[in-house]
Design brief:
about 160 residues, 2 helices, alpha+beta
Length: about 160
């Protein structure tokens, strides 16, 4: 019986099996890395839409009376005003790919998903709200915030805010 080539052949088969295992594990690792990057982009986009909505609320708060120049748009392609100053160069490079856009509109009929939640400037059950004493009527605004990432990914949120002037 000739066993001279069996060890070499068996070693090659074991090496082939190990290589296939390593390739499979690398593919799984790359896929998980891609999913983690996507989740990071998604989370960052959500936080940026939140920052955009906060900036829109701050703009509404700075008005002394109901704004007449609506819809009002806040658009930023450079988000350096959100940086803390502690970011490293890699983080700054990643953040440079983001931008946001907010549109503030006045709601004459307040509705969410087609369901009316109120009309006009009235905020509570009675129609007398805002007409007696020092109570002021509340005005409702819709803030549509969109964050964009350079890889063609965007996130949009809609916020309804009530402002008393």
């Amino acid at each position: 019986m000739n066993n001279r080539g069996n060890i070499l052949f068996t070693s090659l088969l074991v090496m082939l099996a190990m290589n296939l295992l390593v390739i499979g594990l690398m593919q799984i690792s790359l896929k998980n890395n891609k999913q983690a990057n996507f989740k990071t982009i998604e989370s960052t986009n959500y936080n940026i839409t939140d920052s955009c909505a906060e900036e829109a609320v701050d703009w509404l708060k700075s008005q002394s009376k109901p704004p007449s120049n609506l819809p009002y748009t806040i658009q930023k392609s450079n988000l350096e005003h959100l940086y803390s100053g502690a970011e490293d160069s890699e983080t700054l490079n990643l953040l440079s790919k983001y931008s946001y856009n907010c549109v503030i509109t006045f709601l004459t009929i307040k509705s969410v998903d087609g369901k009316t939640i109120g009309t006009g400037n009235n905020v509570v059950i009675g129609d007398s709200y805002g007409t007696s004493g020092d109570l002021n009527p509340n005005y409702y605004y819709q803030i549509s915030a969109t964050a964009n990432h350079g890889n063609n990914y965007s996130k949009k949120t809609t916020t309804i805010v009530s402002v008393e002037f």
